[in-house]
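Ticket #4471: structure output looks truncated?

Reporter: J.K.
Steps to reproduce: submitted the chain below (268 residues) through the standard prediction queue, then opened the result file.
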Amino acid sequence: MRHTDMSILVNDYKKLKNWKEIYQWKRITSRGNSEIISEWLLRDFEKIKFDKFGLRKNNFKINVHEGYCELQTEITQFTEKRFCRALFNKYNKIEHPLLGKILDYEVPLTAPKQEKTKKVNQGDFDLVSKRNGSILVFEVKKAQSNESLLKAILQIFTYVTRLADSNLINKFLEDYIPNEKKIIPCILTFDNAASGKQISEIGKYPKLQSLIAKINSNLEDNKIGKLEFYIVEEPNEDYTSLLNIDPNTIQKKSGKIVLEREVKIIKY
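Returned output as attached by the reporter:
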């Protein structure tokens, strides 16, 4: 990295005030910046705050979610939201061997009633599932996404830690499965996404590995499970034919989206 580029990176980083601003920082998207930014985050870890303004306090579960999607674009257009809904439709009755039984998707963490001029978006869990007595919450990256693994990690870390700091973990669990006691943050990505490539080549990123260890220690202190990583491996990387619409559910310009075939998911 050129000296001028490093100076810009340093100056941009100094302006960031909390974990949310960090994971939204455009420069964190590049996997080429992962090592240097991970080093800075390790150094400043205890100083960085959590922005909790506008965080939802209850009613996390969205009862109207039925796995439908809009069909203004061709079904061959593969998106993160469509993939998550297809997984929900397939595994909300039966369990996936790794992901468990999927309970919900696009679960909002933003308080519903805020002044429009002051509204703060606190993100959402892309998927929520139940497995072996625990609730898994997912940050999902689509096929061919260019977003770094570091961004995905900081997103899910921020989401669950904000809940813990606000004493909302139990409330979140009660909204889904009252008897469950543990929440586990997970990342689900694809082998041809930047984040998937970094997971499979994690040995090339020692600073990022150290940051993951630090985050896992912090999660354990908050009685949250360690980060789990999953990669979708698709033969020939042909994702355009992976999704379809159940013809029995088509309603004008929407329908229930389904997986056209099984997908291979590996845990790392």
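Triage note (M.O.): checked the attachment and the full token line is present. The chain is about 35% helix and 20% strand.
Status: closed, working as intended.
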